[in-house]
Amino acid sequence: MRFNHITLVIADLERSKRFYTALGLIQIVDTPPRYARFRFPDGDATLSIEVTGEASAPPSAQLFFECDALDETVATLKSNGIVFTQDPTDMFYLWREARLRDPDGHDLRLYNAGDNRLNPPWKIPQSEAPAGRRVSPGSD
């Protein structure tokens, strides 16, 4: 299994398109007035935004965008008018992280974790890791 994309429910399509384009994502689908999809500059994951017209709960997702040159990326985005709620900060979990919100209040984190993303000092040794459920194609 591999992550493909996430769709965020938003209130204003054009406002969100401007925001995510300014963040550096590349728009690949545009179906106004309700939907757009973006490709990340690195890798093949995508982000969709959709106006559903449904009342929704306040945003609670945290989206993490990995950046090799975090401080430089944040400086560039700030110079382009993106506002951050936290400048790049060394966190206790050994990631360097900057925080911001999109126009609908979704919590975004730009970060650099290096090897600590997959191999933190507190990682469970594979010999002690709980066995995962194996799923065959077509099974529930």
Set out the fold topology.
Blueprint: E1 5-9, H1 13-22, E2 26-31, E3 35-39, E4 46-50, E5 62-66, H2 70-79, E6 86-90, E7 96-101, E8 107-112
Structure commentary:
The chain contains 2 helices and 8 strands. Helix content is 14%, strand content 31%. With 140 residues, the protein is α/β, with parallel strands linked by helices. A hairpin with a 3-residue loop joins strand 2 (26-31) and strand 3. The model is unreliable at 133-137 (pLDDT under 50). The chain is globular, with a radius of gyration of 17 Å. The chain has helices spanning 13-22, 70-79, and strands spanning 5-9, 26-31, 35-39, 46-50, 62-66, 86-90, 96-101, 107-112. The strands form 2 sheets. Strands 1-4-3-2 form a 4-stranded mixed β-sheet, with helices on one face. Strands 5-8-7-6 form a 4-stranded mixed β-sheet, covered by helices on one side. The longest helix is centred in the N-terminal third of the chain and has 10 residues, at 13-22.
Q: C-alpha Rg, in Å?
A: 17 Å
Number of strands: 8
Helix content: 10-25%
**Order of strands across the main sheet:** 1-4-3-2
Keywords:
single chain, 140 residues, alpha/beta, 4-stranded mixed beta sheet, 2 helices, 8 strands
TL;DR?
With about 140 residues, this protein is α/β, with parallel strands linked by helices.
